[in-house]
Design brief:
The complex is a heterodimer. Chain A is mostly helical. Chain A contains 9 helices and 2 strands. Classes of the chains: A mainly alpha, B alpha+beta.
Chain lengths: 199, 439
């Protein structure tokens, strides 16, 4: 009998695979109903055992569970392509990815053993860390960076109810794939800005 | 207007979500376990062997397979359960976690059984598992038996994560496998080897280590239900792995670690005087270490006992050593194995290994098969070498000591000795030293 946290982890992976399928050429021409049927089929296929495990479980073996921030972006994209819901605002998204990239540059090297300071430790229910996140979420809301506030709030809520196997709040906020995507988008954006700036 | 450029009503809802989420987060954080003291193992009851006695056995008799990384747990009344991994080779798909129980009445080990393999693990974890290894067992304060072992989904051992199972009947039946999340980088590169211990609030201390980019030791704290509640770094960079805690009292402990840094190769140690809230800067101690696992326990009288390959290269020598000054100075109590410099041809290797098997257990009827198994694992062409590695030492509640280690990658060897034997042996050695000084 699968545990609740296995189901949530596998659903996260299935969401990413579904988002990739929705980006395939020709899918955009499908009606909302047909897209819904296709999405349902993809979910069933990737969660149905094939051989030893479901396809999503093979992917999960390599990737682990995806952060809530990743899922917010994935579902934002999915709903846009499926139901025509307005896409994530580019400025909001870039602001979020900038924060993620800054976190990633510090979090991953330090957690992989560069020095004795380990920020990952503060994800295990450290009150000071939660206060800091609360201040960041509130500041983001005041400054109308609603996507940042939304991702932090949903991550904090998911961590509070034990949505995933992890008991560490960092794992709900960021994951390495989101970090790589964030660094790539920010680097690309900076290069584009430099090219557009007259010498 | 974009979906994300919220209307006032939607922005109020978002603020409400922030308030609810952080109320829940603060509630959870406020109920998080507070720091606890160490539980000092009660193991000085002197109800074990009353004589000065030392014995040895083979735990795993299966021939011609690769066998490695044993650990032990005390079941009480002299019964000991061992765990190790075995398969066609280290990292192979057919590797299993195996177990057997030592019966003190008959002075023998039960037949070995498999309790986990790659398939059972990936079915329990609902994720692909490529290989399994290093099992470490522990009995929690509530009597639950925990088994932590290493699983890899991608890459080599550097891609490891820790999997846990529990048993409520001393290891006869086990729960499904559960994953411990210990690293933000796709949870890779966390392994177990050192002896776990209990905290006063029922939580468990689990020594772990990383060997992905850095090689460093850490200490996990798990709740009684197995949730990771804290993690603390012991070393950084590429200095040391496989921490082994020697609990001295409720506040003090010494951590011994396998040295992975630059020469001179020495065991690394760190100490705490506040139940693990802070650890001293890691430093080299007097014991040599060829980048090989160390085992140890603290005695009730404050002395420290360790087992290690006390050379700077290879694992051909295994020694039992004792310290009476908190680990500053060590003296050898017994040379458990010594094949230093022996690199015989296969035929001679089999003869020597067969003799070592007979010395381990005089009643063995097929000692030559143990020799042949050793050749199977430790000879490459005409070049053979001995290996005695991965020691794991415990002191049982009845005060007897139990040591297991990998014997030529072919079998798990068990050495048990009484407290009386240890004291007598140390007295004899000191008398020899003082006699030699007089003469």
């Amino acid at each position: 009998m699968p545990q609740f946290t296995d189901l949530t982890g596998l659903l996260g992976i299935a969401s990413v695979i579904s988002a990739i399928v929705m980006m395939l050429p020709g899918i955009a021409r499908f009606s909302t109903l047909h897209k819904g049927i296709l999405l349902s089929l993809v979910f069933v296929l990737v969660l149905m055992p094939l051989g030893e495990l479901p396809l999503a479980a093979y992917v999960r073996g390599a990737t682990g569970d995806l952060s809530i921030t990743t899922l917010v972006l994935i579902w934002g994209g999915l709903l846009h392509r499926w139901c025509g819901l307005a896409s994530v605002d580019a400025k909001q998204r870039d602001a979020l990815l900038t924060v993620v990239a800054l976190i990633a540059v510090a979090l991953y090297p330090l957690s992989l053993g560069v020095g004795m300071f380990d920020p990952y430790r503060y994800g295990f229910a450290c009150v000071a860390f939660i206060i800091a996140l609360f201040i960041i979420a509130l500041t983001a809301w005041i400054r109308r960076s609603d996507l940042i506030a939304l991702c932090i709030a949903l991550a904090a809520f998911a961590w509070s109810i034990g949505w995933y196997e992890s008991s560490n709040l960092w794992d709900y906020l960021v994951d390495p794939f989101l970090a790589i995507y964030a660094v790539w988008v920010i680097a690309f954006s900076m290069k584009k800005t430099r090219l557009q700036t007259p010498a | 207007m974009s979906y994300w450029q919220q209307q006032p009503k939607q922005r109020k809802l978002l603020l409400l979500l922030v308030a609810i989420s952080f109320s829940a987060a603060f509630y959870k954080a406020m109920h998080h376990p507070t720091p606890a003291t160490f539980v000092v193992p009660v193991n000085d009851q002197h109800v074990g062997a009353q004589r000065a006695i030392i014995r040895s056995h083979f735990v795993s008799p299966t021939q011609n397979i690769s066998t490695h990384a044993a650990s032990l747990v005390d079941l009480g009344n002299g019964y000991i359960r061992a765990f190790w991994f075995a398969g066609s080779r280290e990292g192979a798909k057919d590797v299993q976690i195996r177990t057997a129980v030592f019966d003190p009445v008959y002075d023998r080990w039960s037949p070995e059984t498999a309790i986990a393999d790659r398939n059972s693990t990936q079915n329990g974890l609902l994720r692909f598992v490529k290989k399994i290894g290093n099992p470490v067992a522990h009995q929690a304060s509530d009597g639950t038996l925990w088994l932590f072992y290493v699983t890899v989904s991608i890459g080599g051992w550097a891609g490891s994560s820790i999997t846990a199972m529990t048993s409520h009947d001393d290891g006869n039946t086990w729960s499904g496998a559960r994953r411990l999340i210990t690293s933000p980088f796709i949870n890779i590169s966390t392994l177990v080897k050192g002896t776990p211990f209990n905290y006063s609030d029922g939580s468990i201390g689990l020594p772990i280590y990383h060997e992905f980019i850095g090689k460093f030791g850490e200490l996990l704290r798990l709740s009684s239900s197995g949730e990771v509640i804290d993690k603390q770094r012991l070393t950084s960079g590429k200095l040391a792995i496989q921490p082994v805690p020697l609990i001295l009292d409720a506040q003090r402990a010494l951590m011994l670690m396998r040295h992975t840094g630059a020469a001179p190769k020495r065991v690394i140690s760190a100490v705490t005087t506040d139940a693990g809230q802070h650890w001293s800067t890691p430093q080299k101690i007097a014991l040599s270490n060829p980048d090989a696992a160390v085992a140890g326990v603290a005695l009730a009288d404050g002395r420290l006992l360790a087992v290690l390959n006390d050379t700077e290269a290879k694992r051909e020598v295994l020694s039992l050593v004792v310290s009476s000054d908190n680990g500053k100075n060590w003296e050898t109590v017994l040379q458990l194995e010594d094949q230093h410099g022996q690199h015989p041809q296969p035929a001679e290797y089999v003869r020597l290994a067969t003799q070592l098997a007979k010395d381990t257990e005089a009643t063995l009827v097929d000692a030559s098969a143990f020799g042949a198994s050793a050749r199977h694992n430790k000879c490459m062409g005409q070049s053979c070498e001995f290996e005695f590695s991965y020691p794991y030492l415990i002191q049982a509640k009845n005060s007897d000591f139990h040591l297991v280690y990998t014997w030529n990658r072919s079998h798990i060897k068990h050495v048990s000795f009484s407290r009386k034997w240890l004291d007598q042996r140390i007295t004899e050695l000191r008398k020899e030293v003082s006699d030699a000084a007089v003469h």
